Amino acid sequence: MKKILVLAPHTDDGEFGCGGTINKLIEEGNEVYYVAFSPCKQSVLSRYPSDILVTEVKAAVKELGVKDENLILLDYEVRTFNYHRQAILDDIIKLRTKIQPDMVFIPALTDMHQDHKTVAEEGLRAFKFTTILSYEMPWNNISFETSCFFKLSESNLTAKVNALKKYESQSHRPYANQHFIESLATVRGVQINAKYAETFEVIRWIN
Fold first, then answer.
1. Which CATH number characterizes residue 139's domain?
2. Number of domains forming the structure of the chain
3. Sign of CA dihedral 150, 151, 155, 158
4. What is the DSSP pairing of strand 131-135 with strand 196-204?
């Protein structure tokens, strides 16, 4: 069994970037930990409670198979991560000490969102001696090298889709629809002669 750590700047980033892979890894007997750095209270639509994403992420990761105790929620203010680099690095180092993961998933280092980029850079700094893979978020990635693929089964993809459906408050996003999610998984599958896949950029691979 391996310990896997997913660093999600905001609730739902991990599901979008590697939800199918999370489900696959858990199916294979690995222990997955999911850390969300912000519940994005400042950007939630006014018709929802400001903490709605806390409720939604709990339901979403449960769909993927993540244990309740393996979901870690932090409370950084959205779009301000670059002002809190040291505190974020300190939190990640605490997680490194506590979990000692074998593999870490982070956003792409070329991600345009300032929060995503900060988590990616501080994650790399903290886990320089650990296998690190960047997950794909096409709407934010300036460039992305598809250097690693995880094949997904129908059930892995279904788990990802069902997890993302839990985010009712984010359903207005242009990328938050089942057709896009399934289409991207199909495209990545075609690249490796599989039905479905998720792709990652290898930052460091240690075996």
1. 3.40.50.10320
2. 1
3. positive
4. antiparallel
Alpha helices of the chain — where are they, by DSSP H? 13-27, 52-64, 85-99, 114-126, 154-165, 178-191
CA 149, CA 199: separation in Å to the nearest integer?
Answer: 4
- Specify whether the backbone of 12 is left (phi greater than 0), alpha (psi in -120 to 50) or beta: left
Task: Please state, in angstroms and rounded to a whole number, the distance separating the CA atoms of residues 83 and 188.
Answer: 35
**What span, in angstroms and rounded, lies between the C-alpha atoms of 102 and 131?**
7
Summarize pLDDT for 116-155 with one digit per residue, the tens. 999 999 999 999 999 999 999 999 999 999 999 999 999 9
**Can you list the residues of the chain whose pLDDT is less than 50?**
none
Residue matched to tokens 């893979």? 133
Residue type for position 191: Q
Total number of residues shown for the chain? 207
Structure tokens at 178: 């089942």
Contact assessment for residue 100 and residue 131, using Cβ atoms and an 8 Å cutoff: no
SS3 128: coil
Note down the domain range covering 135: 3-204
Q: How far apart are CA 19 and CA 60, in angstroms?
A: 10
| Residue 162, pLDDT score | 98
- Pick the closest to residue 63 from 10, 17, 30, 26 (CA basis): 26
Neighbouring CB atoms inside 10 A of 158's CB total 15
